[in-house]
């Protein structure tokens, strides 16, 4: 197996879509979240939380188009949660399915993260948190 055949090695690089809503900024992940791509996610989060940007009440991370997540990717999600908690801001995950759902369940993190079926559900819940 070549390096390009391994998960997380440029076959499906991570793309992060950003959409600002009223209750949250939605980060939509497409591709693979791993050791090689987590810096891109952190960079987008830094941009969203930048003092020059309107600070979002919360952040929704949409995982519905995530094709792969390893322990480094899971660590990135935990890091985002810690950062949001320290800022007193809510975080929600959406589209948790397949491998990511199994990882979160096996590690007990499905009880730590707020998980919703749709972005609309998550935005509504986060709006209620700050109402």
Automatic annotation (TrEMBL):
CDD domains: STAS_anti-anti-sigma_factors. Pfam families: STAS. SUPFAM superfamilies: SpoIIaa-like (SSF52091). Residues 25-129 form the STAS domain. InterPro entries: Anti-sigma_ant (IPR003658), STAS_dom (IPR002645), STAS_dom_sf (IPR036513). Belongs to the anti-sigma-factor antagonist family. This is Anti-sigma factor antagonist.
